[in-house]
Specification:
- One of its GO terms (molecular function) is UDP-N-acetylglucosamine 1-carboxyvinyltransferase activity.
- This protein has a four-stranded mixed sheet, with helices on one face. It has a four-stranded mixed sheet with strand order 2-15-17-16.
- Helix content is 31%, strand content 25%.
- The protein is built from 14 helices and 24 strands.
Length: 418
C-alpha cells in the first residue's frame, strides 16, 4: 500500500496544471449509456474513480479505452444491466448508472453505493424521483431493482439538495416522455457541465445552474463528440490552500475562478492574494495567515469538499477560527490526524474550534477519506520535519498525480510503495 513522505517547510513556487474535474467526468461517463455509438470525451482525469467507472461500464458491455487525452466509450453492445457490489462498493458515484440504464433499456439492477466514509448519503431521493416518473422499484439483498416500459415526465421536488440525485434524474428525464421539472436542484458547475454535454447529445434542458431545471424528453440522443470536461475546482482550491499555508507563489493554469468565488473570498480574508494573469490565476500566500470562520453549505456557498483543506490552513493562522460542517455529519475525521501534528482543535457536534499554533510538526498520519487525505498533505507541506501519510489510495481517487505536481513546484515529497 502506497504512502507519501513529505518534509515540510519549503516555500512552493511555480505553475500547476489543473486536471479535469472528477465530479464532472463520472456523471458524463455514465451518460454515455443513454446513446449507442462511440463517445469521445476529453480531459477526463486519470484517477482511481475514473478507472472504477470504466470497469463498471465495461462490465455492462461497453467498450472503454483511454488514449492520451481522449476517453472513448462504445455503448453499442450493452447487454448487462447490473452494477455489481464488488465495483459499486468502492465508489458512490457508481449509482449514476441507475437512471441511464432505466431510461434507455427499461431496467437496472444496481448495488447500493459505497465510497468515502464521511456520513450517510442515502439515494432515497433518486428512487423517489424514478418512481414519480413511472418506474417500479424494489430493494432486494442490497440491490436496487428498477423497471419501466418508458419513463414519463414528472414534477420532482428535492427535500434536500443532492448533486448526484439531480444528475441521475436529469439523465432519466432526457429520454422520458413529456416534460420533467426538478425543483431545489443542485447548482454545482459539475451539474451544469453534465447538462451542457447532454444538450450537445441532443437533449433539451433549461435552467441548469439554477434551482429549477426543466427537461423536455426526446426519443433518442446521439453520441458525445469531443466534449471537454471542466477543470477541477476542488483541485484548484486545494492548491490555493497549498500556496496559502506555505507562503507560496503559484500560478494555477486551466482554473475557472468563478467556480470558486466563496473559497477565494474566504482565502482573501485570511490574507491570501489573488491575481489574474495571462498564464492563469496567481495565488500568493502571506507570511502569516489570519484566522477566519467558515460554514459549509451547498454551491454557490463554501464547499464541504474544501472544509478539511481550509481547516489545515487555520491550524497555523493567527487567532481562532470556527468551522461549521452542515453538509455531512461525519466529516471531521481528519481532526485526530491533524492533532497528531500539533494542531489545537476542539470538536463539538458539527463545529470545530481551531486555535492557530506557531507551527505544525511532522508525524505519521493516516488518510481516512479523499479530502481528509488532501488536508494532511496541505498540513505536511508547512510542518517541521517529516510526515508520513498512510492509505493514500484515498488521495489517488480524486487527485491526478498530486505528488508529481507538488514536486514540480518545489515540495520535498516522495511516494513509497510497500
Amino acid at each position: 500500500m502506497d504512502r507519501l513522505v513529505i518534509r515540510g517547510g519549503r516555500r512552493l513556487k511555480g505553475e500547476v496544471q489543473i486536471s479535469g474535474a472528477k465530479n464532472a467526468a463520472l456523471p458524463i461517463m455514465a451518460s454515455t449509456i443513454l446513446s449507442q455509438g462511440k463517445h469521445n470525451i476529453k480531459d477526463v482525469p486519470h484517477l482511481r474513480d475514473v478507472m472504477t467507472m470504466g470497469k463498471l461500464l465495461a462490465n455492462l458491455g461497453a467498450g472503454f479505452h483511454i488514449h492520451n487525452n481522449e476517453t472513448i466509450i462504445d455503448c453499442d453492445r450493452i447487454k448487462n444491466f447490473e452494477a455489481p457490489y464488488d465495483l459499486v462498493k468502492t465508489m458512490r458515484a457508481s449509482v449514476l448508472v441507475l437512471c441511464p440504464l432505466v431510461a434507455r433499456f427499461g431496467r437496472a439492477k444496481v448495488s447500493l453505493p459505497g465510497g468515502c466514509a464521511i456520513g450517510a448519503r442515502p439515494i432515497n431521493l433518486h428512487l423517489m424521483g424514478l418512481e414519480k416518473m413511472g418506474a417500479k422499484i424494489q430493494l432486494e439483498s442490497g440491490y436496487v431493482i428498477a423497471k419501466a416500459t418508458r419513463l414519463k415526465g414528472a414534477s420532482i421536488y428535492f427535500d434536500t439538495i443532492t448533486v448526484t440525485g439531480t444528475e441521475n434524474l436529469m439523465m432519466a428525464a432526457v429520454l422520458a416522455k413529456g416534460t420533467t421539472i426538478l425543483e431545489n436542484a443542485a447548482r454545482e458547475p459539475e451539474v451544469v457541465d453534465l447538462a451542457n454535454c447532454l444538450i450537445k447529445m441532443g437533449a433539451r434542458i433549461n435552467g441548469a445552474g439554477s434551482s429549477v431545471i426543466e427537461i423536455e424528453g426526446v426519443d433518442e440522443l446521439k453520441p458525445i463528440a469531443n466534449y471537454s470536461i471542466i477543470p477541477d475546482r476542488i483541485e484548484s482550491g486545494t492548491f490555493m490552500a497549498v500556496a496559502g499555508i506555505t507562503g507560496g507563489d503559484l500560478v494555477l493554469k486551466n482554473c475557472i475562478p468563478e467556480h470558486l468565488d466563496a473559497v477565494i473570498m474566504k482565502l482573501k480574508d485570511a490574507g491570501v492574494v489573488f491575481k489574474e494573469t495571462k498564464k492563469g490565476l496567481r495565488v500568493i500566500g502571506p507570511e502569516k495567515l489570519i484566522a477566519r470562520d467558515a460554514k459549509t453549505i451547498p454551491y454557490p456557498g463554501f464547499p464541504t469538499d474544501m472544509q478539511a483543506q481550509f481547516m489545515a490552513m487555520m491550524t497555523v493562522a493567527k487567532g481562532t477560527s470556527i468551522i461549521k460542517e452542515t453538509v455531512f455529519e461525519n466529516r471531521f475525521m481528519h481532526v485526530a490526524e491533524l492533532k497528531r501534528m500539533g494542531a489545537d482543535i476542539n470538536i463539538e457536534g458539527g463545529t470545530a474550534t481551531v486555535k492557530g499554533v506557531e507551527r505544525l510538526k511532522g508525524a505519521p498520519v493516516m488518510a481516512t477519506d479523499l479530502r481528509a487525505s488532501a488536508s494532511l498533505v496541505v498540513a505536511a507541506l508547512c510542518a517541521k520535519g517529516e510526515t508520513i501519510i498512510h492509505r493514500i489510495y484515498h488521495l489517488d481517487r480524486g487527485y491526478e498525480r498530486m505528488d508529481e505536481k507538488l514536486r514540480q513546484i518545489g515540495a520535498d515529497i516522495e511516494r513509497l510503495t510497500s
